Amino acid sequence: MKKAPKNVYTCQDCGYSTAKWMGKCPDCGQWHSMVEGKPKTISSGTKSNFDLSGAASRPVPIDSVGGIVEERMSTGILELDRVLGGGMVSGSMILIGGDPGIGKSTLMLQAMHCLANAGQKVLYVSGEESIQQIKLRSQRTGAGNSNLFVYSEIVLEQILEVLEQEKPRAVVLDSIQTLYSQDLTSAPGSVSQVREVTFRLAMHAKKSGIPTFIVGHVTKEGAIAGPRLLEHMVDTVLYFEGDRNHVYRILRAVKNRFGSTNEIGVFEMAEQGLLEVSNPSAVFLSERPEQASGSAVTASLEGSRPILLEIQALASPTSFASPRRTVLGLDSNRVALLVAVLEKKVGMPLMNQDVFMNVAGGVRVTEPAVDLAMVCAVASSFLDRPVPSQTVLVGEVGLTGEIRGVGQLETRIKEAAKMGFEQCLAPRTNLRNLRPPSGIKVVGVKSINQALEHLF
């Protein structure tokens, strides 16, 4: 008599499986993440059908493989196309994640509306909302077109059948955690369901050439909910960033097999939906105070796009035994490092000062090129002397107080000149063969002492 397969316990975070229950996953270290389920049995007589070219699956020399032309299709939203690397690639799987209410579903509905207006037949599948709820959101955003089809379903087999019948040019699945396959007995959102659903959707996308967007939930830690294998099974992973209290949203690519992962898209959340921000520098500097201490402007490079940002700092006497270092939008470890450099190399007594730092507009910056602006903002607040309002600060600060060179300085200076700035403090090593545009003066500095002497 054939024995029935025993149940296994699978970690809902990393996918680790074991025959007995454990309180802590030995692979990822997560507590209480093991869920009981039945293992998926695979017939020994099944053949692999992974080859999508239609030819026999055999090893071939790489120089004998014929090249293909990468065809891209515009979504109709320039900021989204920028992050995708120029548009959607046929057969690509695109995962978009973000906090609840950040605007993921709104962005996807607007993108499908733009494709529908261009004469493309598209399908929006929702496992969380009814078609009446989708209709209400479409009325608010103005997304109404006869080429845009909506479908409310959570069974994978039904969705694949509809895709075969309708053959849309693009499809959105919102969200992947609500879908499930009838071949498995586990609950929707479990490791086995997410793995199976994503794999079968990816196979369908590659065979049919339909670009597929899938929306993923995000945990309180900021990662896409479910196992990490979800990000490895797709071609592109996009994160929607931004504070719910701010009107601006940042769309950032953290993985892209068809383009750069450094590009960002900037959107403004309005009553009628998400609006593209074509000039982020003007937006982020629109409310900058004049002649205020603790404020400095820097030029950050996001992919190929330079963006001018305002770095704000506040240094005030502490009432605690150890001073506070509160940071928003910057790396807290980097801020502590730069404050220590100011204390040691400049002699600025910050041991009894609370330091608060923020990037205006709710943007997060990790580039070392903003170090000089961070240092000057803290010094400006401590000395209560404003940085000249028409000055941009660019440079990386080392532990010995030196100003190190940064990449693509000329691009940053051109953006500053376009916004009307008259002076730029930059690393002296970057001034060789530099051709700055007219109307802006570039001052080279070798250390933070030189920079502070020039400013104050």
Chain-wise SSE layout:
Blueprint: E1 8-11, E2 17-18, E3 34-37, E4 72-73, H1 78-84, E5 88-89, E6 93-98, H2 104-117, E7 122-126, H3 131-141, E8 148-152, H4 156-166, E9 170-174, H5 191-208, E10 212-216, H6 229-232, E11 236-241, E12 248-256, E13 264-270, E14 273-276, H7 280-284, E15 295-302, E16 305-317, E17 325-328, H8 332-346, E18 353-359, H9 371-383, E19 391-393, E20 396-397, E21 403-404, H10 409-418, E22 423-427, E23 441-445, H11 448-455
Parallel strand pairs: 6-10, 6-11, 7-8, 7-9, 9-10, 17-18, 19-22, 22-23
Antiparallel strand pairs: 1-2, 1-3, 4-5, 11-12, 12-13, 13-14, 15-16, 16-18, 20-21
How would you describe the overall organization of this protein?
The chain is globular. Mean pLDDT is 87; it is low at 42-47. It starts with 7 loop residues before the first strand and ends with a helix. It is of the alpha/beta class and 456 residues long. The protein has eleven helices and 23 strands. It has three domains: 1-39; 73-278, Rossmann fold (3-Layer(aba) Sandwich); 283-455, Ribosomal Protein S5, domain 2 (2-Layer Sandwich). The strands form six sheets. Strands 8-7-9-10-6-11-12-13-14 form a nine-stranded mixed beta sheet.
